[in-house]
Write a structure and sequence with these properties.
The chain is of the alpha/beta class and about 625 residues long. Among the domains are: about 210 residues, Up-down Bundle (ABC transporter transmembrane region fold), CATH 1.20.1560.10; about 110 residues. The protein contains 22 helices and 10 strands. The two termini are about 70 Å apart.
């Protein structure tokens, strides 16, 4: 079972990290775990019945062996010998068949539970707010979603079934041993402590080696991930560091190999030692049994009984070793479920309103009324943001980096909720609007254009699944992507690559704009929508965006003066407040923040454009 704290260590003890994070065992936790097993109670009953039957049938070959010695061999009865051998073969076959059946049902149950839990987790994560994904590590989310839930399979088919199976084997074997000869049973049990001590000692040694090996493996994986990724390999080539990186890999790989060899050697000597101790029990039984027979201390004892006892004692040792470590398996299993439940217990802060409304969005004003917001209590991001965007108008939001521009627009589709005040569409607070309806009514083109690793068609259809071929082409034409498509042999079926790496920044942004055009929203948010475009592409796109914004209420965040000048009103954000607002000329006359931005950013753009025009 994959350990919830990392790679599974050898069974027999808990690491210091595991000891410190042992989950508190409560009836509520156990019942919650069992709730996932409840739908499959019938199948579990079959598994447990199979385990019990298998444990009982598993005794028969050993008992039959005793009868073969006492009745068939000593009695020189060939017919009985054949019958007993057939009976032994049948019982062995039956035991194996039952074991296969048990494994099949177990695997089916565990995979169905994993299916249920992954569906539940994915649905739960889909409804988590945007803040969850900005604060949680992506690796942690994937680990909980995949590794931890997949580990449940081992808990069900491994830990749970193993405990029941081992208990059944131990109980039935002890009953059979003491029934045949309580003296020989006691002799065989005496060896058990000798199996426990070396197991724990060797387990700690092997775990230390495995921990060191895992650390080096992590280092090697990190090196591979960094240097063989798209960006990493490019950096290596540009700085001609191939030999240095090869040497680093060689050194780490050598350490990993040495540690692996040490662990393997340690494991072999441990197996030799355990083999010696497991053979000691049968030897002691042979000695004690021989002494009883030779000295005639127990006239009822037979050679067949001794032979059967030896076979049974060999059957006893392994499950006892497993049962001695139940607390370790149990703790790790609980830790696994606890990590999964930690996510399930996170309550989404942005939820569908109880009595959701669907107001008319097309002709509604957007109102920010005394809005305050902070990501953490320690730092206020927005303070008393108050403005109204009239229906059908385009407002530009400008300001220094980090002033809160993107935060303002993110409150509209409820990626975050306000701490105080309200954001309204018409007279309806966005927190009262049906969440799906709200977000379908708003189109957003972000500064970082994200594309799925698929085709252009698939990325466009994400906005409108029912779009026709002509609608897709029209959207691309409006976004000035038509020429790019014509140069691609596969057209709309061109694969864009991971995060759209096969396209340039401008092409990716035009595709994301085409996606929003296809969505045909009532409200537009353009967050640096043309920042990655060259001047030629920007000019073509700007006209498309202007057509798109006609009749729609739009909020545009931009550093491009050409965009800002076309705005019906400009909002200047600084330190989380609306410092200034008005037209371009009005704001320049104030000699404030906007004037400063104009002097440092916009004028440079104008001068560069003038130089280009002069050269041409």
């Amino acid at each position: 079972m994959p350990g919830p704290m990392g790679p599974m260590n050898p069974r027999g003890f808990l690491t210091e990290e595991e000891k410190q994070s042992v989950p508190k065992v409560t009836g509520k936790l156990i019942l919650r775990i069992l709730s996932y097993l409840k739908p499959y109670w019938f199948q579990f009953t079959l598994v447990f019945l199979a385990i019990l039957i298998s444990a009982g049938v598993g005794l028969l070959p050993s008992i039959i062996t005793g009868k073969i010695v006492d009745e068939a061999l000593v009695g020189r009865n060939m017919k009985l010998l054949v019958q007993l051998l057939i009976a032994a073969f049948v019982t062995l076959t039956a035991s194996e068949v039952i074991g296969v059946l048990e494994s099949y049902i177990n695997a089916w149950i565990s995979n169905r539970i994993i299916f249920d839990m992954k569906n539940q987790m994915y649905d739960h994560l889909q409804h988590m707010p945007h803040s969850f994904f900005t604060s949680e590590k992506q690796g942690d989310i994937i680990t909980r979603m995949n590794s931890d839930i997949s580990g449940v399979s081992s808990v069900i088919s491994g830990t749970l079934s193993s405990i029941v199976s081992n208990i059944a084997v131990v109980v039935t074997t002890l009953v059979a041993l003491f029934t045949m000869s309580w003296q020989l049973a006691l002799v065989g049990i005496v060896v058990i402590p000798l199996l426990i001590l070396p197991t724990r000692s060797a387990g700690k040694t092997r775990w230390k080696l495995l921990s060191e090996s895992q650390a080096k493996n992590d280092e090697m994986n990190q090196l591979v991930n960094e240097t063989l990724s798209v960006s990493g390999s490019l950096l290596v080539k540009l700085f001609t560091r191939e030999k240095r990186e090869m040497q680093r890999f060689h050194d780490v790989n050598e350490e990993v190999t040495k540690l692996a060899m040490k662990e393997q050697r340690s494991g072999k000597w441990f197996r030799v030692l355990m083999g010696m101790f497991t053979q000691l029990g049968p030897l002691l039984i042979y000695f004690a049994g021989g002494w009883f027979i030779i000295s005639k201390s127990d006239p009822t004892l037979t050679v067949g009984t001794i032979t059967a006892s030896v076979a049974l004692i060999n059957r006893l040792y392994r499950p006892i070793q497993s049962l001695l470590n139940i607390h370790v398996d149990f703790t790790r299993s609980l830790a696994l479920f606890t990590r999964i439940f930690d996510y399930f217990d996170m309550i989404p802060s942005i939820r569908q309103p109880e009595h959701a409304k669907r107001p008319l969005v097309k002709r509604a004003d957007i109102r920010y009324e005394h809005v305050a917001f902070s990501y953490t209590p320690e730092k206020q991001i927005l303070t008393d943001i108050d403005f109204t965007v009239p229906a059908g108008k385009m407002y530009a939001v400008v300001g220094p980096s980090g002033s809160g521009k993107s935060t303002i627009v993110n409150l509209l589709p409820r990626l975050y909720d306000v701490d105080a005040g309200s954001v309204k569409i018409g007279d309806t607070d966005v927190r009262e609007i049906d969440l799906d309806y709200l977000r379908r009514s708003i189109g957003v083109v972000t500064q970082d254009s994200y594309l799925f690793n698929g085709t252009i068609r698939e990325n466009l259809l994400y906005a409108k699944e029912t779009a026709t071929e002509q609608e897709l082409l029209d959207a691309c034409r409006s976004a000035n992507l038509e020429e790019f498509l014509e140069n691609q042999p596969d057209g709309l079926d061109t694969v864009v690559g991971n995060r759209g790496l096969k396209m340039s920044g401008g092409e990716k942004q035009r595709l994301s704009i085409a996606r929003v055009i296809l969505k045909d929203p009532r409200i537009l948010i353009l967050d640096e929508a043309t920042s990655a475009l060259d001047s030629i592409s920007e000019t073509a796109i700007q006209s498309a965006l202007e057509r798109l914004m006609q009749g729609r209420t739009s909020i545009v965040i931009a550093h491009r003066l050409s965009t800002i000048l076309k705005a019906d009103r400009i909002l200047v954000v600084r330190n989380g407040v609306i410092a200034e607002q008005g037209s371009h000329d009005e704001l320049l006359s104030l000699n404030g923040t906007y004037r400063e931005l104009y002097e440092t950013q916009f004028r440079q753009v104008i001068e560069r454009e003038s130089e280009k025009n002069t050269e041409n």
